[in-house]
Amino acid sequence: MTDRLQRMYSQIKTNYQHIGIEKFKIITKTEAECAGYPAILRRGQTLKNVLEQFPIFIGDDELFVGNPASKPWGLEIEAGLGKWSREECEYLREDGFDFSEEDQEEMLRINEQFHPFGMYQGANLIIAENDRLDVFARSGMMLAPWKKDKKLGNRVGGGAACSGLGNGPGWKLLCIDYGLALNKGLDAMIAECDEEIQNNRYFDKRSFERGITLQAMKLSLQGLVNYAKRFSVLAAEMAEKEADPRRKKELEEISAICANVPAKPARTFREAMQCFWFMFMMVNPAPTPTIGRFDQYMYPFYKADIEAGRITDDEVLELLGMLRIRCMEMNQQSGREIRKRTSGGARWMNMTIGGVKPDGSDACNELTRLILQAVRDVRTPHHTVTLRVSDSTPDDVMLLALTCQAEGCSMPAFVGDKSYIDYFTQVHNPDDGLPIEVARDYCMTGCIDGNVQYRTRTMGITMFVCPLMLDIFMNNGWDRNIDEQVGHPVSGDLSKYETFDQFMADFLPEYRYFVETAAEKLNIESAVFKDLLPDPFRAAFMANGIKSGLDCYAQEYPFESNQLLNPVGMVNLAQCLYAIKKLCFEEKVCTLPEMKKAMDANWVGYEDLHKRCLDLPHYGNGNDEADDMVRQCYRWWVDIANQTPSSLGGHFRCSAISVTSHQPGGALCGAMPDGRYKGDILADACASPMAGCDHEGPLAVFTSAMKIPQDEFQAMLLNMKFSPSALSTDRDKMKLASVIKAYFANGGKHVQFIVEDQETLKDAKAHPEKHNDLMVRVAGYSTYFVQLTPGLQDEVIARTENTQI
Amino acid sequence: MTDRYMELTAPVFNVQTYSIHDGPGIRVTVFVKGCPLRCRWCANPESNLARPQLMTYAAKCTACGRCVAACPQKAVSIGTLHDKPCAITDRELCVECGVCVDVCPCEAREIVGREKTVREVLEQVLKDKLFIDASGGGMTVSGGECLAHPDFTEALLYAAKEQGLHTAIESSSFASEAVFDQVLRYVDLALLDIKHMDSDIHRELTGVPNEQILSNIRHAVHDLKKNVTVRVPTIPGYNDSEENIRATARFVKEELGPDVGIHLLPYHRLGESKNESLGKVMDLSVSVPSDEHMQDLKRIVESYGLYCQIGG
What we know:
The complex is a heterodimer.
Chain A: H1 3-10, E1 19-20, H2 22-33, H3 39-53, E2 75-77, H4 86-94, H5 101-113, H6 119-127, H7 131-139, E3 160-162, H8 178-183, H9 186-199, H10 207-241, H11 245-260, H12 269-282, H13 294-297, H14 299-308, H15 313-327, E4 332-334, H16 336-341, E5 350-354, H17 366-377, E6 384-389, H18 395-406, E7 413-416, H19 417-425, H20 436-439, E8 442-444, E9 450-452, E10 460-465, H21 466-474, E11 478-479, E12 484-485, H22 500-532, H23 536-540, H24 545-548, E13 563-568, H25 570-586, H26 592-600, H27 607-615, H28 624-642, E14 653-656, H29 662-668, H30 698-705, E15 713-716, E16 719-722, H31 730-745, E17 750-755, H32 758-766, E18 775-777, E19 782-784, H33 790-798, E20 801-802
Parallel strand pairs in A: 1-2, 5-6, 6-7, 10-13, 13-14, 14-15, 16-17, 16-20
Antiparallel strand pairs in A: 2-3, 3-4, 7-17, 8-9, 11-12, 18-19
Helix pairs in contact in A: 2-3, 3-10, 6-22, 9-10, 10-11, 15-17, 17-18, 18-31, 21-25, 22-28, 25-28, 32-33
Chain B: E1 9-19, E2 27-32, E3 53-56, H1 66-70, E4 76-81, E5 84-89, H2 99-103, E6 109-112, E7 114-117, H3 118-126, H4 129-135, E8 138-142, H5 150-162, E9 166-171, H6 177-184, E10 189-193, H7 199-206, H8 211-222, E11 227-234, H9 242-256, E12 261-266, H10 270-277, H11 291-302, E13 308-310
Parallel strand pairs in B: 2-8, 8-9, 9-10, 10-11, 11-12, 12-13
Antiparallel strand pairs in B: 1-2, 1-7, 3-6, 4-5
Helix pairs in contact in B: 3-5, 5-6, 6-8
């Protein structure tokens, strides 16, 4: 790290931030002025006003500028994500946040006149009136459990405070076309909007929507151009007063850069970095601000500058390191309850590198390597990096990536080009897929959810607690958590089932019913989002965005993956079914009613049966029978999703990540035949074995995971834990590299590693103060281990560690 | 090779997948049980005897008492180990019948070692064929001492080669030349230990002298024309003196040839906890060698113009 980066790194703040209301004031004022306007125009105007009025400043060491909050490392009260109560404001101060009483009073005053209509209220218009959906929503099978009474909006215990200048809340998985801003410039896009506005003819049913959306796009683009100009002026003013000649020169350069980008095409790597940062602030706040294939769209600028001698690799490395530090400025805090529960500030700023170019050749370049070097130099959990791996990914890149892992950087994650490309081309059903050269341009848009850069997008995703289906089914449709009938009363007297097939013949229709109902709920929410949360800025940067003149919710795309059904704990559900099949029907160790009694007793008094359950082969050991049940359960999931229509067009598709849902999901389930006790955490990640249930080494885990039909999923997460001893030499790393490539060549989609000694993790739990910078990978994001909830810390510790002597 | 070679058996205590330090690429390492040597630092003390043995894991034990109730010999009682309540097995009474293992709910007890056929082992090995092939790996037979089970080992190596696998053994080379010839027939790479160059000290440390060992290693290189790597388990205070390392390097260079490499395997403590699991106390007090020390030894070997690496 350079001295400059050291200074910036030491400023990183992940808690107790300043809370500002500058953005809130501008937004609420604009909303009031534009009351009654079409939502997209209102949100376009909001963006423009924020960009033109928000306080700006330039930090001492910054080489690219733009502040995502009104104070350094601060957060801004978010207008559209619930309201802050007086009580919660006081909690903020009690918990150490810097929130002035003056700002608090002003915000509360504004709140009295400000009545945002949120997702919860919108969806509840339908759900509250439909008993079937209402009881399903409250069961929590689709996380989080729907609450009947939520006066303050949809967030329990307070609103949100975020950094970033864009339209919140940004709940979408997509990657905008950064290349458009870099290569074409916003002035040209504004001119294109103008042209479309003038040429729009008002005949068809969408013409009005187009006319309005184009104006909103133009407002947001103009806003960002003006924002940059403000920085050009500010930097020039600061340069004049600056005594240090070196900084003076830097400020003059910043001024010149901001006079050019993003209005005009970027001419140098530095201009490209500045342009990227302006754009990136516009996709924040969001839990999933996507960076996309940075080593591809930035490479031409790098190459030209290196060839012309305008920049050195060390200077590029400093800029890339600075980007890592500045990404840490993008933060989010909520009310006290959520602050307590939030595990390590889950955020997914995913930068995708490597993989293949649209023509199929290897895409790795010098920038790919420098990005990995920056990961090693600047240890921050954000932004995260995902390395796309194809057969042709060079050994030195694999080695560098695994060196990052071995050094405890907890990134990059590895994803397999073949499985992702097979998903986007829909290799089993090409009529439903994209051409291969388009599919090859996919990137990570969430944790490991792929989307093709600016050509496909996902607007809704559900976290669905799979084992709860069986729990409710075995209780005759009764949900013991809310004490109500959620499913159909089909199982009745369990002694009636004479074979496993009979049992499944009753269970599978319930499986389908629950998944379909989750899809309905998501369809309702997405319909509400479509009306409430259009985003003219992102829409302008999607393929065909200005040409179509439509928002991302409204435009139809050649490949629709707009909504995803995401199972959590499928491995547990499969193991439960396998245990029932083996123990109740094949080996007849117990009857089904006895199994049910043991579940109801939370295994107390049924220790022998419990042991029989635990002793069964588990998924993750290469055992065909156990693995096959997992494969089958995922297969059913895919088939149901593909047959279920989406309210945004096309049909549902699947992803399989757990984020941190395996903890709250497990909390909803009773003791079950997979051997878990009531409320125990579920298997993480979706392709990972249940923690501690894999005994046959890492290759058996890969072998089991390859049996899942992964190319039908937009994401399929696999976590593995290695002790540093297994990655100590370059030889070791290259052996693991060959395994990763073999896994990806044979259907694997993703793998990420935690490389820490068990003892280190245990010590970090006991003595967090000694391990403040220990980073781990949870479910597609890196985070400080000490910020995880105790339950998740335990789960990470319990994962089987692969050692080597 | 007999027709029934697939049915030959040996006591096997581990088929370890993803072995990355036992030869090129990713290996499946087959550990046979039973060894004529008694190296004082042995990392796999459960491999000494050919018969199945009970191992207990205090860290996993919750002192629930189910084993106490189940033991037909009344050999188990609840006591204290490492400052926590724990099932303690009286090894004098225990007949290693395994009843306690069956009732243990927390996997704190295990019988290690079982007679396995070549067919059975091979099937297990082939589960990883995809990864073996992708990494340029293969199968390694280790132990215990594979030379102690020559018919089985020969058959297993033959069967692996039939499947197109690269084969290796990890061995003490302590056997008659005839047995050595038999086992090495289907070996692509022999990882052969030299624990000490001084035969008296060798006997003191391992229970056997080294003349036969050194002679077999020479024979493997010169007569059998095998690809050989010499391995030196580096045990501080026992065989890590500059003098011994120089003697080893000199032997390799002068009597085996400059193409034979040396792996210096730093001592690790895994054997210590395994001894506890077997109800034994390890008669050795030694610390793990420092990286600097290992690097020094590596430089000494390299000064003879030999390839040397630390670790397998």
